[in-house]
Design a protein that fits this description.
The structure is a single chain. The protein is an alpha+beta fold. The chain has six helices and 28 strands. The protein has a four-stranded antiparallel beta sheet with strand order 1-28-27-26, with no helix packed on it. The chain has a four-stranded antiparallel beta sheet with strand order 2-3-4-5, with no helix packed on it. Helix 4 packs across helix 5 (105-128).
Length: 507
């Protein structure tokens, strides 16, 4: 309240309805007083009455008329009531300094202006909490100013120098070197095979010639799951079930084996194909397998007679096979440069089921297929050496949304949901892994290090790490998609709450 008392004192001094008690006497009052004093002093007993009467008369002229009326000192003898409020302090200051010499007026005026500015600053700080001259909304130079403490709002800050957590632009660092390199001796360097898969229980399965090895990414343990009896036979494809308990293995002797990983026990061996099984994909209890014969078989692993359906459309080897996340569509790619989209068919469905879409735009073998996790009607496909294009398809309309020439053979595609990106594996001529922003397909980063063509990609359960296997007999883990700890914990809770889909035992 001190500032209000100070203002009251100023206004009481400057009121016009009462005399200024502390100010000097006006000039006309001083002249009247001096003339009256001289008249009284001139009266003496020896003087005549005429002199006394003439001297006591009211003068015919206003006192001081016989002199120049321009005041010789600043301040004058009148107060002008139309002065601006900001000049009241200056006026009061000049009234108190009226009798100072004329040559000092300029110095006094400077002091008065400084006095006024300091008072305004003090009032502004007391009333607003900040100096209003320093809080301009339009500030053309320098850093933005801090918002006053009383006007700060965590929900909406109009201007501030200190950035809030929501406004911080987080920079993401993508390492150009792999987080880990695993040795993969005797890996079969075959473009059409799918020899790598990562389970939801964080176990990486890799096929090395005629053996399947498991690497526990959490503990770091390595386990030999199985080995084929004949040396001339080899593993062609691997695929985990959704809950990560069982592993399907496609072999060169035209069979599909099911393994219980926890007990390291083979549950069954299913024979239906006439050529090697190079691609596998799960849809709950239905396992789909693609063969070099061009046929796709559906197996119901709950039934003794597992083979329930056959899809015919490809004229050459089926090297790419993927079920959509919602289980409605099966996408297949082959060495005949074709991409097919098949509908889900129940056990009693017609054996002459037609494909929903058949696309012929690719000019090379289509092994790379990936469904978008956050847009379930979007399918990405990649062509081989003669094509080198990534194509994005809308399954609902059947149209190609976008296409990109990568200038390199495409062997695998994976969507990375943490940053909504698409990852591609390349053979000749780049032999690397490339990260693309989706849907713009602008290049985010290139992961180099493999000395031969990259054959396959797979994503970790937390979607933070991509594993690539190449003809140089190495598996490289690229930790390129780490997310905030809060988002990571929420996603882990969601995964744990998902119950097992397979309720009946595999016979």
């Amino acid at each position: 309240m001190a500032q209000f008392g100070f203002e009251n004192d100023i206004h009481s001094i400057l009121k016009l309805d009462m005399p200024i008690t502390n100010g000097p006497m006006a000039r006309w009052q001083r002249k009247a007083s001096s003339s009256n004093t001289s008249a009284l002093n001139g009266l003496s007993p020896g003087k005549s009455a005429n002199v006394s009467l003439s001297s006591s008369k009211t003068p015919s002229k206003t006192p001081g008329k016989n002199k120049k009326q321009t005041p010789s000192k600043m301040g004058g003898d009148r107060f002008i009531p139309t002065r601006n409020t900001k000049q009241m302090d200056v006026a009061s200051f000049l009234l108190t300094k009226e009798n100072e010499p004329v040559d000092a007026n300029e110095h006094l005026l400077i002091e008065a202006c400084w006095f006024l500015q300091e008072n305004q600053k003090a009032w502004s700080v007391s009333l607003n909490g900040y100096n209003i001259e320093d809080a301009k909304i339009l500030h053309l130079g320098g850093k933005p100013l801090n918002a006053p403490e009383g006007y700060q709002n965590n929900l909406k800050v109009l201007y501030s120098q200190v950035t809030t957590p929501a406004s911080i632009k987080k920079t993401r660092y993508i390492s150009s070197t792999p987080d880990r390199i695993l040795d993969a001796p005797e890996l079969r360097n075959d473009f059409y095979l799918n020899l790598l898969d990562w389970s939801s229980r964080n176990v990486l399965a890799v096929a090395l010639h005629n053996s399947v090895y498991l690497w526990d990414a959490t503990q770091g343990d390595i386990t030999l799951l199985m080995k084929m009896e004949r040396d001339e036979d080899y593993i062609c494809s691997l695929s985990w079930t959704k809950e990560g308990s069982y592993l399907a293995v496609g072999t060169s002797d035209c069979k599909v084996q099911l393994w219980d990983v926890e007990n390291q026990k083979r549950l069954r061996s299913m024979a239906s194909h006439t050529a090697r099984v190079g691609s596998l994909s799960w849809n709950e209890h239905i396992l789909s397998s693609g063969s070099r014969s061009g046929q796709i078989h559906h197996h119901d692993v709950r039934l003794p007679n597992h083979h329930i359906f056959t899809l015919t459309g490809h004229s050459q080897e089926v090297c790419g096979l993927k079920w959509s996340p919602d289980g409605r569509y099966l996408a297949s790619g082959g060495n005949d440069n074709m991409v097919f989209v098949w509908p889900y068919v129940s056990e009693g469905g017609s054996r002459n089921s037609q494909s929903l879409h058949s696309w012929t735009e690719h000019q090379g073998a289509v092994k790379a297929l990936a469904w978008c996790p956050w847009q379930q009607n979007i399918l990405a496909s990649g062509g081989g050496t003669s094509d080198r294009h990534i194509r994005i398809w809308n399954v609902n309309s059947g149209s190609c949304i976008s296409s990109l020439d990568t200038q390199s053979q495409i062997s695998s595609l994976v969507f990375a949901p943490n940053y909504k990106e698409l990852v591609s594996a390349h053979g000749f001529a780049h032999n690397n892994v490339t990260i693309w922003k989706y849907p713009s397909l602008t290049r985010v980063a290139e992961l180099n290090g493999h000395e031969d063509r990259v054959l396959s990609l797979t994503l970790s359960p937390d979607c933070s790490t991509i594993a690539s296997v190449a003809g140089d007999e190495t598996i490289r883990l690229w930790k390129s998609f780490e997310v905030d700890p809060v988002k990571k914990k929420a996603k882990e809770r969601l995964v744990k709450s998902t119950s097992s889909v397979i309720h009946q035992s595999i016979r």
